[in-house]
Task: structure prediction
Amino acid sequence: MKLFFNQVSLIAIVVMSFLLGGCDKTKPYDIDVAPPRAHFIGSVTKLYNVVDNPAPSFTFQIGTTDVSSADRVVTYNISSPSGAVAGNQYTISPAGSVIIPKNGALADITIQADYAAYSSGRRDTLILTIATPSLEPTSFLDTITVVLAGPSGCSEGNPDLPSLIGSYPNTNELLGTNAYGPYTTSISSATSTGPNSATIVVENIWDNGWGPISFDLDWSDPANPTAVVVQQDAIPGSDAGDLNATYAGQTVAVRVPSAALSATPGSYASCVPQTLVLKMQLGVTGVGYFNALYTVTMLRN
Result:
């Protein structure tokens, strides 16, 4: 994998200079107003349990970063790596776009599963991504995963840790705006660390000889299980020259992303189809961290 930052943006070495001598306190200064953006609300992975007949509907929301005096449209794309088809396994409303009403900042999306399609324990993954033309998406929660799960012995509240171990051949990643994949990652171990927690070791992240990276799993809230990277100051086998040629020969560091980069933690679904969304911030050992979110999405099938 070859992704480079063209300009250095390491947090630890940013130096800012201010000319204070000529400041006029009576002068009105322009205020930068952030442009409106759209994003999903809540966790990045949502679990829809299809266990009752008829199945209750499942509703979640899209929001905006501001309020407008006019109606606005937010469009989204939906795909299913597990093969779910709208009109067969589920219906979704409104399909493809929603209207954020004037003087408001939220709109509902509702999925209705067909119980008969899931009564034998079927599970499906839906991936929804905010698209243009519409309001531009934010850098956080522009994509979510909805897992539709029929009745089975698998539960996110009591995950089968050994079942997580193995290959994830459909892995994709995004570093800032640079996408790469699919490629293969794997989980080499999953070790319980408490009644509602475990640590997994993931191999081949970055797809260029990096050593393993560990993540802490937590299912205290079964509806929102989380996956959080364990900080590592030097990843064996890594070369920071992959990120910026200036740092060739130095190792890469990894940590939990700053709040400015990601408002939500990584997540996972231990039941089929097994999915992990891992969020990280990359840097250079002993120097600092790049101001870009690194997201690795691992899918078993």
Notes: The longest helix spans residues 115-118. The two ends are 22 Å apart (CA to CA). Residues 237 and 274 are 27 Å apart (CA to CA). Helices lie at 115-118.
